[in-house]
Every structure is written in structure tokens, then in C-alpha cells.
Amino acid sequence: MMQSWIVDIVMALLGGLNIYQFVFWRIQRDKYRAEADSVQTDARQKRTDLMQDQYDYVFSQLGKLQNEYMELQEKVRREANEHSDVIMTKCNEIAELKSKVVYYKGLRCYRSDCGIRISVNPKDQGNAQQ
């Protein structure tokens, strides 16, 4: 029994490599390559998933920021309209005061041939024509 075992070992060592050993190493090499390809494919898929998650996050943030921008723009437009109404009112008041100043300036002029002299307030004159 011991001799058969020793003979097997000696024959394997002296017999050199046989065809099964070549096939075994090729099969192992192909198996390892397939495992490496599988790992690379999984890594690519995870990278793609991560990029999709980042895209979704950035897109949601963009939507929020666009909504905030639109709200702020609407607020600015409303306040600008309110301020333009106030400005228009003040401009009308200034124009009316200028008219009164011109009228009162014309009343102070005592020369009868003065071109600045105004005997009737232009506002009253406009009301009389209507």
C-alpha cells in the first residue's frame, strides 16, 4: 500500500505535465477572468446608479431653486408696481405744485405786458373748458 502511493507520486513527478493539467489551468484562468469581468460589470452598474442618483438630486435642487427664483421675481415685480404707483402719484403731485408755483409767480408780476403773468390757474382753465 505504501509502495503504490510512493509509486504514484514518483510517476506524477517524473511523468511531467499531462493534458489534464493544461486544461485545468486554462479553465481556472477563464474562471478568474469571468469573475473579474463580473466585478467590473457590477462596479460599472453601481457607478451608473450613483450617477443617476446624483442627477436626480441635482434635478430636484434645480426645481426648488427655480421655484424660489420665480417667487422672488414675482415679489419684486409686485413691489416694483407698488413703487411705480407711488412714484406716479408723487410725480403728479409735483406737477400740480409746479403749476401752482407758475400761477402764483404770474400773479406777483405787476407788469401788464409780461409774458409770464398768468391771470387764470391752468388747472381751473382745464376744468372750465370741460
How would you describe this structure to a colleague?
With 130 residues, the chain is an all-alpha fold. The protein has one domain (17-129). It has helices at 2-15, 19-108, 122-129. The termini are far apart. The mean pLDDT is 79.
Brief summary:
The chain has 130 residues and is mainly α.
Q: What is the number of independent domains?
A: 1
Number of strands: 0
Question: Helix-strand pattern, N to C?
Answer: HHH
Main sheet? none
- State the end-to-end distance: 138 Å
What's the overall geometry?
Answer: rod-shaped
Radius of gyration equals 50 Å
Strand content: under 5%
Name the helicity range: over 70%
Contiguous low-pLDDT stretches (5 residues minimum) are: none
By helix and strand content, what is the structural category? mainly alpha
Q: How many helical stretches?
A: 3
SSE diagram, text form:
Layout: H1 2-15, H2 19-108, H3 122-129
